[in-house]
Each structure stands twice: as C-alpha cells, then as structure tokens.
Amino acid sequence: MLQDELAHADIHCMNEVIAPLSPRRSEAWAEIYIEGVGTFAGEVVGFDPQHTVVAFADPVSIPSGRAVVLALGVDDEQGQGVSGTSIATLTHADGRCCVAIALNESIDRRTLTTSDERRRKARVPFVTRIEVMAITAKKSGDTNFRCEAYDLSTRGMGAVSHKEIKRASTVLLRFALPPHRGATAQVRASVAYSRALGADLGIQLGFEFERVSASQLLQLNTAINYLSRTAVEQ
Hints:
About 10% of the residues lie in helices and about 50% in strands. The protein contains three helices and 14 strands. A six-stranded antiparallel beta barrel has the order 3-4-5-8-7-6. The chain has a six-stranded antiparallel beta barrel with strand order 9-10-11-14-13-12. A hairpin with a 5-residue loop joins β6 (about 65-75) and β7.
C-alpha cells in the first residue's frame, strides 16, 4: 500500500504524516493532463511502481477520482505516457501542493518507464506530409522543408526527404494526426539518423521526439490506436 511505502515524514495529508516514496538524485518531472481541465507540470517527489506523488510550484486543484494521463521523465529524457487516477491532494513539508496518482501500469524505479515500454515504442505505418522547421542545424545550408512520414510511435517517426539535415539537429515538426479531420500535432524533435537511400531516392530521416507533453502523448496514442485498428481491418 502507498502508506506502507512512505517511510519518512516529508509530506502531510489530512493531518497524517507521509513522505516521498523514494528520493532521487536526478530531477524527475511529470506533466498531468486531465481532459477538459488542462495540463499541470511539476516535480516527482515520490513514487513506487503503482503510485507517484507530484509537487507543484503553484497551488493546483485536481479532485480525487479523476482519470489522468501523465508524462514522466528524468532530467531531459523523453517522458513515458501512463494513465492513472488522482487519489489525494497533499502538502509537502516545504509548502508545495502535491497530488498523489494511482498508476494503471507499473513504473520502473530507476528509469520511470512503464513495464510495456516495448509496446509503446512499436511503430505503426503512417503516411502524411511533415513540415520541418530547423531550430538548430549542423550547417548553415539546412533550412525549413517538407518530407513524407512512413511510420509513427509515441517516441518518434520515420520520414523520407529530398533535403539533407545533419544528425543531432533539433527541429520542430508539424503534421496532421488521425482520427479527427483537421487535427495537427506540433512536436519538438531531434534527428536521430539521416541516411542516403541512393541516387534520386532521397534521405531517410529518423526523428526522436523531445519531452512530449501529457496532452501530446494522449493525442499520439489516440492516433496510433486508430492506425493499428484500421490496419487490422484492412
């Protein structure tokens, strides 16, 4: 149980003393998304495989029993998406407002990743046009351009382009996402690889998303589930 895991008194809830589940040397962060309410960004101050406690710089109002989607990560590492339910509003010893979340999937203590990370990394076929805006580039010749996507996951996407851009460049991607007509995603990413496919065949690009928000993860998961279903039906 959550109360059994909280060993030292740093958080107070309803006059009962509880504490972070496990202190971390690295900075663990979280974004909580609640449909119809909004997104709340904070610091992970405690967790076990089934729960997490998030502290916020400013007071937040998240009622208990609400379904939430979280993006969790450590330092600048890309977050993992996981769903859960808010179970309590707490006050940290330093005065910060905290929310305790019961997770629907187990979380690894060391990496804050879910047990089915392999499934989340799975890519689905996805064909659409991507607008690419170079934020940082390895040479002055890199400019904004368009390319064609061929797959998608919550961690990144693959594309083919006739414009070369160097590995490790940072870009902003904008592309349409199913199932809702007119829905678009705008995601910051880094170029994981850039490979020539041969004469007149273009450049194969691998984009790795950077610190995707909880609402963006929900949007990506919705699109991936839709693409997976339609692929099976065909």
